[in-house]
Amino acid sequence: MGVAYNDDETLDQLKTWWQRYGTPLLLLIAALLFSVAGWKWWSSKSLNDATAAQGLQQQLQAASQRLSLNAEDKAANTEFQRIG
After folding, report:
1. Which DSSP string corresponds to 20-32?
2. What is the distance between the alpha carbons of residues 78 and 71, in angstroms, rounded to a whole number?
3. For residue 84, is pLDDT > 60?
4. In a 3-state reduction of DSSP, which class is residue 6?
5. Residue 1: helix, strand or coil by DSSP?
6. Are the C-beta atoms of 13 and 5 separated by less than 8 Å?
7. For the chain, how big is the Rg over CA atoms in Å?
8. Distance between CA 81 and CA 78 in Å, rounded?
9. Between the CA atoms of 19, 21, 26 and 29, what dihedral angle is there, to the nearest 10 degrees?
10. DSSP characters for 64-82?
11. 8-20 burial, b for 16+ CB within 10 Å, e for fewer?
């Protein structure tokens, strides 16, 4: 059968436990909170960076196509293209 404790003994045991494990427990909770916050920040930053890179890539492709079309138009107006 279990040992019966009165309220004062239980409170004393809880205080002893808290004095022994309270600081490490709080440090563990703080470390977990900082880890979760850091992970969320990193995920958000990575997504924003990827979105920005995708936009830049699309702009680069559009500019490349415009330059390619301009080069073909200019080549069509040259003497070499008329003879060819």
Report:
1. HHHHHHHHHHHHH
2. 11
3. no
4. coil
5. coil
6. yes
7. 35
8. 5
9. -160
10. HHHHHHHHHHHHHTSHHHH
11. eeeeeeeeeeeee
Amino acid found at 33: L
The tokens describing 24, both together, are: 């490490």
What DSSP string describes 24-63?
Answer: HHHHHHHHHHHHHHHHHHHHHHHHHHHHHHHHHHHHHHHH
Structure tokens at 59: 């702009």
Name the pLDDT band for 68 (thresholds 50, 70, 90). confident
Tell me what the mean pLDDT of segment 16-45 comes to. 98
Q: Which residue has the tokens 């004393």?
A: 12
